[in-house]
Amino acid sequence: MEHYEMLENIRRHSLVVEKVASLITHGLIETGVPLSVKKVAAGALMHDIAKTICLRDGGDHAALGEYICLKNQLREIADLVGEHIRLKHFDPNGAILEKEIIYYADKRVNHDQIVTIEERLQDLFLRYGQGNVALEKRMEENFLICKKVEQKLFASLPFGPNDIADLLDLSELVEQTD
Q1: Gyration radius of the chain's alpha carbons
Q2: Which of 7, 73, 111, 143 to pair with 119, CA 20 to 30 A apart?
Q3: pLDDT by residue for the chain (178 residues), tens digit each?
Q4: Contact indicator for 54, 60 with CB cutoff of 8 Å
C-alpha cells in the first residue's frame, strides 16, 4: 500500500473490505466450503492497489491492479484483484470462489462504511454515472449479478447480509488509521 502510494481513504476502504470478506469466508469455511482465508484477506487488501495511480493518471484500476499483482509474483490473488469490479464468469450454481467474496465485499463497503448493495449503487451513480445512461445501465446489470452472488454466498451462512455490520467491530480500524 505504501509502495503504490495508496491514499489513506482507499486504504481504510480496503481494510473494511478485508474485514467483510474474511467474515464471510470464515462463515463459509465453517459450513464446509473449501476456501483460503489468506488468499481472501490478501486479495481484499490489494483489490484497490492501483486506484490511486488511476485516479491520478486514468485507466482501469482493476486491470492495472491485476498487472501489479503479477509483476510482484502475487499470482494467486491476481484474478481476485482483476475481477473485483466485474466478474468475468459467474456461475450461480458453481462452487463459491474467493473472487466472488471479494467482489461482493467491495460492493458492500462505501468508503469505510458497510452499506447495502442498493446504497452502494446509488453512490456510484452519483460519483461516476452523472447522467451517463449507458454507464448507469452497465452498473445496474453488474449489481444484478452482485445480488445473485449475495444469494449464493448467504444460502448456507448462519447470518444474513444485513447482519454484517453488527458482526464486525470497525472501531479499531478507525483508530489504526487516524
Answers
A1: 15
A2: 7
A3: 999 999 999 999 999 999 999 999 999 999 999 999 999 999 999 999 999 999 999 999 999 999 999 999 999 999 999 999 999 999 999 999 999 999 999 999 999 999 999 999 889 888 877 888 898 898 899 999 999 999 999 999 999 999 999 999 876 665 554 4
A4: yes
Total of domains in the chain: 1
44 in a domain, yes or no?
A: yes
Q: Residue 19 falls within a domain, yes or no?
A: yes
Domain with 136 in it: 8-87+94-163
Q: Identify whether 168 is part of a domain.
A: no
CATH number of residue 49's parent domain: 1.10.3210
Q: Cell match 466472488: residue? A: 100
Which SS3 state, helix, strand or coil, does residue 116 take? Answer: coil
First to last CA, the chain: 16
**Closest to 44 in 3D by CA, of 7, 89, 77, 90:** 77
Q: How far apart are CA 5 and CA 149, in angstroms?
A: 31
165 Cβ contact partners less than 8 Å away, ≥ 6 residues apart: 114
Is 176 a member of any domain? no
- The count of C-alpha atoms lying within 13 angstroms of the C-alpha of 112, restricted to the half-sphere facing its C-beta, is 19
